Amino acid sequence: MQNRNITLDAIRTLAIVLMVVFHFAYDLRFFGWVDWNVPNGKGWREFRYVILTLFFVSVGASLVLGNYRKFSLKMFLLRLFSIAFWAAVISLFTYYFFNANWIFFGVLHFIAVASVLCVPLIRKPILSLLLGFVAVTLFNIGLVSSKWPFNLISLSLPHSPNDYVAIFPWIGVVLFGIAIGHVLKSGFDPFAKWNIPNNLTLLGRHSLAVYILHQPIFFALFGTIYWFSSSV
Q: CA-to-CA distance for 200 and 132, rounded, in angstroms?
């Protein structure tokens, strides 16, 4: 069994913790308890970009570490199905409860698509790095819209969807993650020298479960508090 890379687990853990903090602030605003402009206000938008960067670098690196020795199509498809399933659940839930801003292409949707697009490159770090720069550059010079390809499709999609993740430039970050994954697979694992307790990287090792569960827990908790405070 392949040893885990503690540094990658730590990066994922940091991403998860920051995401929970971000969504906690978002939910406080949603229930009207604060007036912070989450997610689009100054500072909050950049905070989200940091979280997405950590997540998507981890996605690219994980593709390498999980598949470079032996690619298992069965395991890859099982993981892909799990991510796509929960992405669909999130879309259906938000479509029903938040129709004007439902999530049609969020973090999990992007990870599923990016995994399919990038898995052929897991053994090509230099090409991945170059294509990553191309993807980011095409976006920054305005040749590719952040709405692509949805701006080419005639569908009744929300103009301001929650949790939207653009394929460009973020696919470039996943490609950078593949290059970083090759550095990690060579034995680069500085966090391993720190003897970090396993419980401090637990969230990173179970990031999908945390991602799926934390918002329902927050909404149940905040909704209960809101209901009690309104009925008093």
A: 31
